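Blinded run. Sample ID left blank on purpose so nobody reads anything into the name before looking at the predicted structure. Input follows.
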Amino acid sequence: MKNRFKAIALVAFSIITVISCKKEDKSPSYHKGDLTILTDESFKSVTEALADGYMINYPETHIKVVTKKEDLGFLDLLNDKARIAVMSRELSPEEIKTYEEQVDLKILPAKFAADAVVFIVPKNSSKTSISMEEIQNGLASDNKEFIFDGANSSNLNFVAQKLKKQPKDLKFSVIPGSKNIIEELDKYPDKIGVIGLNTFSRPYDKASEQLRDKVKILSVGSKGKLYSADFDGLREMKYPFTRVLYFLTNEGNFNIANGFIRYSCTQLGQMIVQKEGLQPYNIYKREVQMR
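Blinded prediction complete.
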């Protein structure tokens, strides 16, 4: 009788243990599990660097960074095909409404870096700057002197938004891929490439150095002044085509997507952003005046 009681107790304990393990496996966790992040090619480098940092800190997480055009990534997020996407352009009121209705969350962009869209010419070009007026006129010309990396890329969307235009109203050429634009630009000496700064912003990366050596980044003139896409230009957002990168998620609990977002916005994540050659959004240098 005593042995029978022990056997029943052992079976009951085993059942409770299995149930507890199943509940634990299903519970939200920021430090283990799989996550796919959708990002436009233009800011893939910083996204991968942050993902690598997160996996080093949390070895039980497995993050995959998938390149997808910004607008398509946003649609996948709305349709629950992904849990997190990197964005740069401002969403329209209609897009915000759709997000909040379909995701059933208030939209909370998690801003983590200041990047830029830059205008480049071959290294041997005599051109050193370009004005806002030249950009507007060039994108209205049948000469299609500006080369973008795609018809629905984040770079095109951002420039169109900055000029208060629709992308379909602009006239431009296309070479798929920002790195391809850099590699092939010297074949078109009368053209100007338009790429994301993060394409080659890593200061000590050999591949980035090789790409930077092939082209020249133009300063942009606005209201009689020239602005560069350097740390000062991005920090103060004086460079006209500075853009703020942010994460959007459809995850309502504190699971791996929100864990990754929190990490990216902490000091450790922001140090990674800075090492990428971009301006951290959440650790601006501050001056305190004592009186």
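Unblinding after everyone has recorded impressions. The longest strand covers residues 110-122.
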